[in-house]
Amino acid sequence: MIPGQPLSGDPVGIPDAKWGEAVTAVVVARPGAALTEADVIGHVTQHKGVVNAPKQVVFVDELPLTALGKIDRKAIRGRYWGGQERQVA
Question: What value does the mean pLDDT take over residues 23-38?
Fold first, then answer.
């Protein structure tokens, strides 16, 4: 969760034909928040710089969690890396 922001999310690397991986933000918007991909990318660019900004944003209803209640990044990456010749840990 980003304090003061209408979203929570996790950046992950997904397969990209040109670069091997592309940073993608998987985001859950808070109820009533009207967010666009450009809003999220602009926010990250402003606060972290263009190098850290995601190349795309995917909006989901909920993020998978581990038994400890943390975001399950392996489950998120698995959605995109399944069936790929190259895998990530």
Answer: 87
